[in-house]
Amino acid sequence: MREEELEIALKVVIVGNGGVGKSSMIQRYCKGIYTKDYKKTIGVDFLERQIEIDGEDVRIMLWDTAGQEEFDAITKAYYRGAQACVLTFSTTDRCSFEAIKAWKIKVENECGEIPTVLVQNKIDLIDQTVVSFDEAENLARSLGCRLIRTSVKEDVNVASVFRYLATKCHQAMKQQYSTVVQTIQPTISAYSPSFQSKTNGTIVLRPSKKSTKRKNVFKKCGIL
Ligand SMILES: Nc1nc2c(ncn2[C@@H]2O[C@H](COP(=O)(O)OP(=O)(O)O)[C@@H](O)[C@H]2O)c(=O)[nH]1
Ligand SMILES: [Mg+2]
Question: β-strand 46-53 against 56-63: which pairing, if any?
């Protein structure tokens, strides 16, 4: 497979209490629609959208929990292979804010440390807020992640959430790739002697073609 045929695909999980706007966010970002009474289409696990990061196509797959969050019944399959996470709470729901730490731990247990963003949704309802500005900032700081305030309804900042995560993942992949390439520096065993007929029989050492198994390196990071 040639390098230009490679595709970067990111599985992003969106967690948080029921009613904070997770399904609406996925619909908004992937389909450009907002409906007040969104019902999950049975059989659809995720929606996707392709964006360009640093000149490369990145396919972002957004996984929906389909309401299982109320029963603590999110299956391991939901988290499996997730490379980034959105922790979501609502401006008008104190419990959803207080549940964020538990959600973070849950994701960490299932996925390890992955790029994560804290989202305060329904910012259009700021006059009904039950979470102060500082509280939200402090929570983000204590979790070590960025806070982005969104309104899925008014389409504010939704795209920034996923662009931010995709950029972080893309950078991590590039770093991992360059580390691997650096470790394949030519050693004497990587040189293959070749005979140059125009010299007087001198044996010249040339580097053999450098191995850049990009496909394999990226596979670990979600390249399909
Ligand atoms: N005002 C307002 N309502 C929102 C926003 N995002 C979602 N909602 C509404 O909140 C309710 C719950 O949304 P939903 O996406 O089903 O939440 P989920 O349970 O986290 O998937 C729905 O009635 C949405 O229309 C927003 O940004 N502003
Ligand atoms: Mg939902």
Answer: antiparallel
Going by CA atoms, what residue is nearest to atom 14 of ligand 1?
21
pTM of the model: 0.80
pLDDT digits (tens, 9 = 90+) for 116-141: 999 999 999 999 999 999 999 999 99
Q: How far apart are CA 56 and CA 41, in angstroms?
A: 31
**Ligand 1, atom nearest to 35 Cα:** 25
Task: Quickly count: other Cβ atoms within 10 Å of residue 143's Cβ.
Answer: 16
Backbone angles phi, psi at 88, to 5 degrees: -115, 135
3-state secondary structure of 7: coil
Cβ–Cβ < 8 Å for 209, 182:
no
DSSP-assigned letters across all residues of 23-80:
HHHHHHHHH----TT--PPTT--EEEEEEEETTEEEEEEEEP-TTGGGGT---HHHHT
Q: Which residues form ligand 1's pocket by a CB distance below 6 Å?
A: 18-24, 36, 38, 121-122, 124-125, 151-153
Contact call for residues 30 and 49 (beta carbons, < 8 A):
yes
Domains annotated on the chain, with CATH:
8-179 (3.40.50.300)
Which comes out higher in pLDDT, residue 181 or 197? 181
